[in-house]
Design brief:
- The radius of gyration is 21 Å and the shape is globular.
- The N terminus and C terminus are likely disordered.
- A hairpin with a 2-residue loop joins strand 1 and strand 2.
- Strands 1-2 form a two-stranded antiparallel sheet.
- With 244 residues, the chain is mainly alpha-helical.
- 71% of the residues lie in helices and 2% in strands.
- Helix 2 crosses helix 8, helix 3 packs across helix 8 and helix 4 packs antiparallel against helix 9.
- The chain contains 10 helices and 2 strands.
- It has one domain.
- The chain starts with a helix and ends in an 11-residue tail after the last helix.
Length: 244
């Protein structure tokens, strides 16, 4: 019966959705092997999950600044800067897992890949996140006047650097929202509720060191960008949702 269901149109897609849902709600979970010294796939999963939770909290705070972007411009810039190092660290940790898996490393092969739909969604999440943060940093460095200068017109719509930032935001909101639905429960499970019988995963000092470097870098970048973003505070024509 299962074979017949998989042969029906849409059967493969239905199975892919069921796989995502099962992992998203915690009904099924990958068993990440634990290795000495580094922790292996289990240590990598912990680093990725903790970094993801930092990104989640920071992203929520950043979205709240959009309620009054003119009045909270300094906060918008500062929080956006704080998100850059965590985004880079999470990209590096997931990238490491991908490389180890596709180069045939035995522990990562044993752990297996994430569900297919999340694998397809992953590149879009990475590109939109880095694009959103990267264009945000660029806007601060350019200043409000150059950032609003028209680069080209498409079907009567004026395109400038702010437009690119807005475009990345639209893609990021959808892609990251879907990614969050699929990964938030597993991330909370391995970080905040690993179970009383869970063995300690080696490599904790390395993970804490990387998180500390991430935090220091984030604060330094935030201070730097807030120092140079003064032009945006007085530029009241800036509106994150304005039409072009």
């Amino acid at each position: 019966m299962q074979a017949l269901q998989d042969q029906r149109p849409g059967g493969s897609f239905g199975a892919a959705v069921a796989e995502v849902v099962a992992e998203a709600i915690g009904r099924e979970q990958r068993a990440d092997p634990v290795l000495a010294h580094t922790g292996g796939p289990a240590g990598n999963a912990l680093l990725t999950a903790w970094t993801a939770l930092v990104l989640l909290l920071g992203s929520v705070a950043e979205l709240l600044t959009l309620v009054n972007i003119d009045g909270l411009m300094s906060w918008h810039v500062a929080i956006g800067a704080l998100l850059v190092p965590p985004a880079l660290l999470k990209t590096a940790s997931t990238g490491w897992r991908i490389v180890r898996y596709y180069t045939g490393n035995a522990p990562y092969l044993e752990a297996g890949p994430p569900p297919m739909l999340l694998r397809l969604l992953g590149p879009l999440v990475v590109v939109s996140t880095l694009g959103l943060l990267g264009t945000g940093v660029l806007l601060v460095l350019l200043g409000p006047v150059p950032a609003h200068q028209s680069l080209l017109d498409v079907l009567g719509f004026r395109i400038d650097y702010v437009t690119f930032h807005q475009g990345f935001f639209a893609v990021w909101a959808v892609a990251t929202g879907l990614h969050l639905l699929g990964r938030i429960v597993p991330a909370l499970r391995i970080t905040l509720a690993p179970g009383s019988g869970a063995a300690a995963v080696p490599g904790a000092w390395t993970r804490w060191f990387l998180l500390a470097v991430m935090a220091v870098s984030a604060v330094a970048l935030a201070v730097l960008l807030v120092h140079v973003e003064g032009g945006w505070v007085d530029f009241h024509r800036f509106d994150f949702h304005r039409d072009h």
